[in-house]
Amino acid sequence: MSVEPPRRPPAEPVPPAVQQTVRELVDVSPVLGELGRRFTAAGFQVHLVGGSVRDALLAAGSTGAEPARPVGDLDLTTDARPEQTLEVLRGWASSTWNTGIAFGTVGAEVRGERVEVTTFRADRYDRESRNPEVAWGSSLVDDLARRDFTVNAMAVSLGPDRAVTDPFGGLGDLLARRLRTPGAAVDSFADDPLRMLRAVRFVAQLGLTPDDEVVAAMTSLAPELGRITAERVQHEFSRTLLNPAPRAALELFVGTGLADVVLPELSALRMEIDEHHQHKDVYSHSLTVLDQAIELEVADPDAGSPDLVLRLAALLHDIGKPATRRHEARGRVSFHHHEVVGAKLVRKRLTALKYPKDVVEAVSRLTFLHLRFHGYGSGEWTDSAVRRYVTDAGELLPRLHKLVRSDSTTRNRKRAAALSATYDSLVQRIAELAEAEDLSRIRPDLDGNRIMELLGIGPGPEVGQAWRFLKDLRLERGPLEPEEAEAELLTWWRSRT
User: Are 261 and 226 in contact (CB under 8 A)?
Assistant: First the structure.
């Protein structure tokens, strides 16, 4: 049975003041003015579309500021066919490229500015892949109708009139911070399921709230996300996570069932009650840890921000809890060794999402280490414990500091203060010990050549075993004089035979 698409109310006219704001956006880039004149002289339309128009209106609406120079590639649409676009650009652009010409897109660079000009399209989708059957269109409105959201379906002409076209009410949605699709949301998302992840990202990036129709369509079509490649899913998810406040977007991601398809370990956390009974569930706790980790990241002038590794670790550090949940006496719940299980799950999931190997290993390592601090009691840190903590963390130590501090989400102020003070004491102990010895590069006191010479053996696994014994000795007792290290090695060697 066919479903009648929702009727869209006619878009309100674009106010003259807003039209002037968008016209000024064109004028801040001389390249756009020149390009408009070239297309007009050749008898073609050309319009600025997409994020540049949206962001200019958003900035003007929220701050009253004049439009800033657009950042990144400028997206344009035209009634010219790709070969005609190339002819218009010939002799003017310093370079052109046609890697997207099969989809109607011609790229060009002019005086350091990059533009992408795409022919009006009226694509059709088979709804088995997300690759459209490309069809050229003849109408700007039809071209805008195929776009993902109304806030991206606005255009400004580069012709003499600088007319603003907003057929689907994108401006009103932008001012109301509302996320809608130009047509029926179910049709838009069925055509291209990646748009559902873009909806999630726009909640974080633009502070928009999806309307009920969009949420309902995302929920019903969530399984369709399985049609999207892991690389594209990872790209959109990472872009969401790197925004200043991604929590609401992640709640939409989980609440609509999208996470069930591509990151089910996150959804599973909603069912697990935190062992301290201070939070609604481990899922809520994990989102709070992420919020707090972002605050520490932004406040640290020595850290790169945004930090994808830290944010992934903060969000996923407890994903081992569902598999390790045990009910104990007196209604207690335990999650013994969830850091070990979680590290394995992190590695498996992030690998499946095609994250770079260094990101996978770093997030897995942080997940494995995030409980280490709690294993040392209330602050009785020996030199050996400090060395092992620093050595195991390696270059991830600054991130581990932030993750452990963020993991304290108790509402008990006295307990929170005690945990913070205990961690402060650990950081102080690390600093004190670092002044006495090089903690950044702890190695055995004897190298491989000396080990072989002393034990009278050649290269082989026994050298590695001896090296690891000396490394453990170094971690336990600190730097040793060569004579002392040699004596300990010989004693160890004799005890093996």
Answer: yes
In sequence order, what E strands does 131-171 have? Answer: 155-157, 164-165
Whether the ω angle into residue 30 lies within 30 degrees of 0, i.e. cis, is: no
**Helix H or strand E encompassing 9:** none
Q: Which of 8, 33, 45 is nearest to 166 (CA)?
A: 8
Q: State the amino acid at position 295 in one-letter form.
A: E
Gap between the terminal Cα atoms of the chain: 81
Q: What is the pLDDT of residues 33-43, one digit of tens each?
A: 999 999 999 99
pLDDT at 257: 97
Question: Based on C-alpha coordinates, what's the Rg of the chain?
Answer: 29
How high is the pLDDT of residue 421? Answer: 85
For residue 364, how many other CB atoms are within 10 A of its CB? Answer: 23
Positive or negative: CA dihedral 249, 255, 259, 265? positive
Return all residues near 2 (Cβ < 8 A) that are at least 6 apart: none
- The two structure tokens encoding residue 277: 């009974």
Q: Is the pLDDT of residue 378 over 80?
A: no
Task: Provide the token pair at 40.
Answer: 């007009």
Residues 6+ apart with CB under 8 A from 387: 433, 439, 442, 474, 475, 476, 478
CB 51 within 8 A of CB 153: no
What is the signed CA dihedral for 52, 50, 61, 15, rounded to 10 degrees? 120
Element (H or E) spanning 77, and its range? Answer: strand 74-78
pLDDT tens profile 87-137: 999 999 999 998 888 889 999 999 888 999 999 987 666 666 656 667 788
The model's pTM is: 0.84
